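User: quick one, fold this
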Amino acid sequence: MRSSQLAQTIANEITLLVTSGELGVGEHLKTQQLADRFGVSRSPVREAMDMLAGQGLLEQKENRGFFVKEAPGAIVERVREDAEPFEVANDYQRLAEDWLTDRIPAEVTEQTLRERYGLTKSQVNDVLMRASREGWAERKQGYGWRFLPVAKTPQAFEQIYRFRMLIEPAAMLEPEFALDRKIIEEQRRTQLRMLDTDIERLPAERLLHNGALFHEELIKMSNNPFFHISLVRVNRMRRLLEYRSRVDRSRTVRQCQEHLEILDLLERGEVVEASYAMRRHLGGALSKKSPVTWSWSHQAHEKDGLEK
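Assistant:
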Protein backbone atom coordinates (compact mmCIF):
# COMPACT_ATOMS: atom_id res chain seq x y z
CA MET A 1 0.00 0.00 0.00
CA ARG A 2 1.48 3.35 -0.97
CA SER A 3 2.02 5.72 1.95
CA SER A 4 -0.42 8.28 0.50
CA GLN A 5 -3.08 5.58 0.15
CA LEU A 6 -2.44 4.43 3.73
CA ALA A 7 -2.76 8.02 4.93
CA GLN A 8 -6.06 8.37 3.04
CA THR A 9 -7.33 5.19 4.65
CA ILE A 10 -6.40 6.49 8.10
CA ALA A 11 -8.04 9.82 7.25
CA ASN A 12 -11.24 7.88 6.51
CA GLU A 13 -10.93 6.04 9.79
CA ILE A 14 -10.52 9.29 11.73
CA THR A 15 -13.47 10.79 9.86
CA LEU A 16 -15.58 7.81 10.86
CA LEU A 17 -14.54 8.26 14.48
CA VAL A 18 -15.96 11.77 14.26
CA THR A 19 -19.14 10.86 12.38
CA SER A 20 -19.85 8.03 14.84
CA GLY A 21 -19.52 10.45 17.74
CA GLU A 22 -16.50 8.70 19.23
CA LEU A 23 -14.51 11.90 18.75
CA GLY A 24 -16.34 15.10 19.62
CA VAL A 25 -15.91 18.69 18.44
CA GLY A 26 -12.94 20.27 20.18
CA GLU A 27 -11.39 16.93 21.15
CA HIS A 28 -7.60 16.61 20.95
CA LEU A 29 -6.23 13.89 18.65
CA LYS A 30 -3.12 12.19 19.98
CA THR A 31 -0.83 10.92 17.25
CA GLN A 32 0.69 8.00 19.15
CA GLN A 33 -2.69 6.88 20.46
CA LEU A 34 -4.13 6.77 16.94
CA ALA A 35 -1.01 5.04 15.61
CA ASP A 36 -1.40 2.33 18.28
CA ARG A 37 -5.09 1.99 17.52
CA PHE A 38 -4.58 1.47 13.79
CA GLY A 39 -1.38 -0.54 14.17
CA VAL A 40 0.76 1.84 12.09
CA SER A 41 3.63 4.23 12.64
CA ARG A 42 3.03 7.89 13.51
CA SER A 43 4.07 9.18 10.09
CA PRO A 44 0.92 8.17 8.11
CA VAL A 45 -1.25 9.34 11.02
CA ARG A 46 0.33 12.80 10.88
CA GLU A 47 -0.11 12.83 7.10
CA ALA A 48 -3.78 11.87 7.51
CA MET A 49 -4.37 14.63 10.06
CA ASP A 50 -2.72 17.17 7.77
CA MET A 51 -5.13 16.08 5.01
CA LEU A 52 -8.15 16.43 7.29
CA ALA A 53 -6.99 19.83 8.50
CA GLY A 54 -6.85 20.93 4.86
CA GLN A 55 -10.43 19.69 4.41
CA GLY A 56 -11.60 21.62 7.47
CA LEU A 57 -12.48 18.61 9.63
CA LEU A 58 -9.52 19.16 11.97
CA GLU A 59 -7.81 22.27 13.23
CA GLN A 60 -4.09 22.41 13.91
CA LYS A 61 -3.17 24.62 16.84
CA GLU A 62 0.41 25.79 17.16
CA ASN A 63 2.41 23.73 19.68
CA ARG A 64 -0.76 21.89 20.71
CA GLY A 65 -1.56 19.51 17.84
CA PHE A 66 -4.79 18.63 16.05
CA PHE A 67 -8.36 19.09 17.29
CA VAL A 68 -11.77 18.15 15.85
CA LYS A 69 -13.18 21.28 14.24
CA GLU A 70 -16.44 20.44 12.45
CA ALA A 71 -19.61 18.77 13.66
CA PRO A 72 -20.25 15.25 12.21
CA GLY A 73 -23.20 16.31 10.05
CA ALA A 74 -21.06 18.80 8.16
CA ILE A 75 -18.53 16.27 6.94
CA VAL A 76 -20.21 12.86 6.81
CA GLU A 77 -20.48 12.96 3.02
CA ARG A 78 -16.81 13.76 2.71
CA VAL A 79 -15.73 10.19 3.42
CA ARG A 80 -14.10 8.87 0.28
CA GLU A 81 -15.80 5.76 -1.01
CA ASP A 82 -12.82 4.73 -3.12
CA ALA A 83 -10.28 4.69 -0.30
CA GLU A 84 -9.39 1.21 0.82
CA PRO A 85 -10.82 0.38 4.27
CA PHE A 86 -8.83 -1.78 6.66
CA GLU A 87 -11.08 -4.78 6.35
CA VAL A 88 -10.75 -5.28 2.59
CA ALA A 89 -7.90 -6.96 0.73
CA ASN A 90 -4.69 -5.09 1.47
CA ASP A 91 -1.23 -5.88 2.70
CA TYR A 92 -2.45 -6.74 6.19
CA GLN A 93 -5.26 -8.89 4.83
CA ARG A 94 -2.88 -10.75 2.53
CA LEU A 95 -0.64 -11.61 5.45
CA ALA A 96 -3.59 -12.61 7.63
CA GLU A 97 -5.02 -14.78 4.86
CA ASP A 98 -1.70 -16.56 4.39
CA TRP A 99 -1.43 -17.26 8.12
CA LEU A 100 -5.02 -18.51 8.28
CA THR A 101 -4.39 -20.91 5.41
CA ASP A 102 -0.90 -22.01 6.55
CA ARG A 103 0.87 -20.57 3.51
CA ILE A 104 3.60 -18.98 5.64
CA PRO A 105 5.69 -20.45 8.47
CA ALA A 106 5.19 -19.52 12.12
CA GLU A 107 8.51 -17.68 12.25
CA VAL A 108 9.61 -15.18 9.61
CA THR A 109 11.96 -12.27 9.06
CA GLU A 110 10.93 -8.83 7.85
CA GLN A 111 13.08 -9.35 4.77
CA THR A 112 11.14 -12.52 3.92
CA LEU A 113 7.87 -10.62 4.09
CA ARG A 114 9.24 -7.73 2.04
CA GLU A 115 10.22 -10.13 -0.74
CA ARG A 116 7.00 -12.18 -0.56
CA TYR A 117 4.62 -9.21 -0.72
CA GLY A 118 6.73 -6.64 -2.53
CA LEU A 119 6.63 -4.16 0.35
CA THR A 120 8.97 -1.54 1.71
CA LYS A 121 10.51 -1.80 5.16
CA SER A 122 8.06 0.81 6.47
CA GLN A 123 5.06 -1.00 5.00
CA VAL A 124 6.10 -4.33 6.52
CA ASN A 125 6.57 -2.62 9.87
CA ASP A 126 3.07 -1.11 9.70
CA VAL A 127 1.52 -4.49 8.86
CA LEU A 128 3.39 -6.31 11.65
CA MET A 129 2.57 -3.58 14.16
CA ARG A 130 -1.11 -4.07 13.47
CA ALA A 131 -0.82 -7.86 13.69
CA SER A 132 1.00 -7.45 17.00
CA ARG A 133 -1.65 -5.08 18.32
CA GLU A 134 -4.40 -7.52 17.39
CA GLY A 135 -2.63 -10.30 19.25
CA TRP A 136 -1.49 -12.75 16.57
CA ALA A 137 2.15 -11.73 16.01
CA GLU A 138 5.04 -10.90 18.29
CA ARG A 139 8.65 -9.87 17.80
CA LYS A 140 11.15 -12.58 18.63
CA GLN A 141 13.99 -11.87 20.99
CA GLY A 142 16.88 -10.73 18.88
CA TYR A 143 15.65 -11.18 15.31
CA GLY A 144 12.50 -11.92 13.34
CA TRP A 145 8.80 -12.32 14.11
CA ARG A 146 6.61 -15.14 15.39
CA PHE A 147 2.94 -15.67 14.43
CA LEU A 148 0.78 -16.87 17.30
CA PRO A 149 -1.94 -19.54 17.31
CA VAL A 150 -5.33 -18.41 16.04
CA ALA A 151 -8.57 -20.17 15.18
CA LYS A 152 -8.10 -21.35 11.60
CA THR A 153 -10.94 -23.83 11.17
CA PRO A 154 -14.73 -23.77 11.57
CA GLN A 155 -14.36 -26.41 14.29
CA ALA A 156 -12.05 -24.16 16.32
CA PHE A 157 -14.37 -21.20 15.80
CA GLU A 158 -17.33 -23.18 17.13
CA GLN A 159 -15.30 -24.45 20.08
CA ILE A 160 -14.42 -20.89 21.03
CA TYR A 161 -18.07 -19.87 21.02
CA ARG A 162 -19.09 -22.92 23.07
CA PHE A 163 -16.33 -22.05 25.54
CA ARG A 164 -17.66 -18.49 25.75
CA MET A 165 -21.18 -19.86 26.31
CA LEU A 166 -19.78 -21.55 29.42
CA ILE A 167 -17.64 -18.82 30.95
CA GLU A 168 -19.52 -15.60 30.19
CA PRO A 169 -22.87 -16.55 31.76
CA ALA A 170 -21.02 -18.23 34.65
CA ALA A 171 -18.96 -15.09 35.29
CA MET A 172 -22.15 -13.20 36.15
CA LEU A 173 -22.92 -15.79 38.84
CA GLU A 174 -19.55 -15.53 40.55
CA PRO A 175 -19.76 -14.80 44.32
CA GLU A 176 -17.70 -11.64 43.87
CA PHE A 177 -19.68 -10.33 40.89
CA ALA A 178 -20.42 -6.63 41.41
CA LEU A 179 -22.09 -4.13 39.13
CA ASP A 180 -19.75 -1.40 37.91
CA ARG A 181 -21.83 1.64 36.99
CA LYS A 182 -19.02 3.17 34.94
CA ILE A 183 -18.75 0.06 32.74
CA ILE A 184 -22.52 -0.13 32.34
CA GLU A 185 -22.81 3.55 31.36
CA GLU A 186 -19.85 3.45 28.94
CA GLN A 187 -21.09 0.32 27.20
CA ARG A 188 -24.62 1.70 26.97
CA ARG A 189 -23.29 4.85 25.30
CA THR A 190 -21.27 2.77 22.84
CA GLN A 191 -24.19 0.53 21.88
CA LEU A 192 -26.59 3.46 21.48
CA ARG A 193 -24.03 5.37 19.42
CA MET A 194 -23.68 2.40 17.09
CA LEU A 195 -27.45 2.18 16.63
CA ASP A 196 -27.72 5.92 16.04
CA THR A 197 -24.92 5.82 13.45
CA ASP A 198 -25.21 4.36 9.97
CA ILE A 199 -23.73 0.92 10.73
CA GLU A 200 -23.15 0.39 7.01
CA ARG A 201 -20.50 3.12 7.12
CA LEU A 202 -18.55 1.83 10.11
CA PRO A 203 -15.52 -0.38 9.32
CA ALA A 204 -15.84 -4.05 10.22
CA GLU A 205 -12.79 -3.63 12.43
CA ARG A 206 -14.63 -1.09 14.58
CA LEU A 207 -17.79 -3.18 14.79
CA LEU A 208 -15.85 -6.26 15.88
CA HIS A 209 -13.79 -4.26 18.37
CA ASN A 210 -16.88 -2.74 19.98
CA GLY A 211 -18.57 -6.12 20.18
CA ALA A 212 -15.58 -7.83 21.79
CA LEU A 213 -15.06 -4.93 24.19
CA PHE A 214 -18.65 -5.18 25.44
CA HIS A 215 -18.11 -8.78 26.52
CA GLU A 216 -14.64 -8.18 27.93
CA GLU A 217 -15.82 -5.23 30.02
CA LEU A 218 -18.84 -7.10 31.38
CA ILE A 219 -16.79 -10.13 32.38
CA LYS A 220 -14.50 -7.87 34.42
CA MET A 221 -17.39 -7.37 36.84
CA SER A 222 -16.99 -11.00 37.96
CA ASN A 223 -13.87 -9.80 39.81
CA ASN A 224 -12.29 -13.09 38.77
CA PRO A 225 -9.29 -12.15 36.59
CA PHE A 226 -9.06 -15.60 35.05
CA PHE A 227 -12.41 -15.16 33.31
CA HIS A 228 -11.23 -11.90 31.76
CA ILE A 229 -7.83 -13.24 30.72
CA SER A 230 -9.45 -16.27 29.07
CA LEU A 231 -11.99 -14.22 27.16
CA VAL A 232 -9.44 -11.72 25.86
CA ARG A 233 -7.27 -14.58 24.62
CA VAL A 234 -10.01 -16.44 22.75
CA ASN A 235 -11.35 -13.19 21.29
CA ARG A 236 -7.94 -12.55 19.79
CA MET A 237 -7.79 -16.09 18.45
CA ARG A 238 -11.12 -15.78 16.61
CA ARG A 239 -10.56 -12.27 15.22
CA LEU A 240 -8.97 -13.24 11.91
CA LEU A 241 -11.74 -15.67 11.07
CA GLU A 242 -14.27 -12.96 11.93
CA TYR A 243 -12.55 -10.61 9.48
CA ARG A 244 -12.32 -13.28 6.80
CA SER A 245 -15.93 -14.33 7.15
CA ARG A 246 -17.19 -10.76 6.79
CA VAL A 247 -19.41 -8.93 9.25
CA ASP A 248 -23.18 -9.38 9.01
CA ARG A 249 -24.19 -5.76 9.48
CA SER A 250 -27.90 -6.54 9.76
CA ARG A 251 -27.03 -8.92 12.60
CA THR A 252 -25.02 -6.13 14.25
CA VAL A 253 -28.20 -4.13 14.85
CA ARG A 254 -29.79 -7.04 16.69
CA GLN A 255 -26.51 -7.63 18.53
CA CYS A 256 -26.54 -4.06 19.88
CA GLN A 257 -30.17 -4.44 20.94
CA GLU A 258 -29.37 -7.67 22.79
CA HIS A 259 -26.41 -5.99 24.47
CA LEU A 260 -28.70 -3.23 25.71
CA GLU A 261 -31.21 -5.80 26.99
CA ILE A 262 -28.44 -7.48 29.02
CA LEU A 263 -27.39 -4.11 30.45
CA ASP A 264 -31.02 -3.39 31.40
CA LEU A 265 -31.27 -6.70 33.27
CA LEU A 266 -28.04 -6.07 35.14
CA GLU A 267 -29.09 -2.56 36.14
CA ARG A 268 -32.37 -3.93 37.53
CA GLY A 269 -30.41 -6.45 39.59
CA GLU A 270 -31.73 -9.40 37.59
CA VAL A 271 -28.34 -11.06 37.35
CA VAL A 272 -29.55 -14.64 36.84
CA GLU A 273 -31.81 -13.47 34.00
CA ALA A 274 -28.86 -11.54 32.51
CA SER A 275 -26.78 -14.71 32.66
CA TYR A 276 -29.44 -16.64 30.71
CA ALA A 277 -29.73 -13.76 28.23
CA MET A 278 -25.97 -13.82 27.68
CA ARG A 279 -26.05 -17.54 26.89
CA ARG A 280 -28.92 -17.04 24.41
CA HIS A 281 -27.07 -14.12 22.85
CA LEU A 282 -23.88 -16.13 22.30
CA GLY A 283 -25.82 -19.15 21.06
CA GLY A 284 -27.59 -16.96 18.52
CA ALA A 285 -24.31 -15.50 17.33
CA LEU A 286 -22.85 -18.98 16.89
CA SER A 287 -25.83 -20.19 14.87
CA LYS A 288 -25.50 -17.21 12.53
CA LYS A 289 -21.72 -17.19 12.16
CA SER A 290 -20.93 -20.89 12.01
CA PRO A 291 -22.35 -21.48 8.49
CA VAL A 292 -20.33 -18.50 7.25
CA THR A 293 -17.04 -19.88 8.58
CA TRP A 294 -17.79 -23.28 7.05
CA SER A 295 -18.49 -21.60 3.72
CA TRP A 296 -15.19 -19.73 3.90
CA SER A 297 -13.36 -22.95 4.76
CA HIS A 298 -14.79 -24.77 1.72
CA GLN A 299 -13.86 -21.86 -0.55
CA ALA A 300 -10.32 -21.77 0.84
CA HIS A 301 -9.86 -25.50 0.26
CA GLU A 302 -11.20 -25.24 -3.27
CA LYS A 303 -8.82 -22.37 -3.98
CA ASP A 304 -5.88 -24.35 -2.64
CA GLY A 305 -6.90 -27.29 -4.81
CA LEU A 306 -6.96 -25.12 -7.95
CA GLU A 307 -3.57 -23.59 -7.15
CA LYS A 308 -2.04 -27.02 -6.76
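User: anything notable?
Assistant: The longest strand covers residues 58-61.
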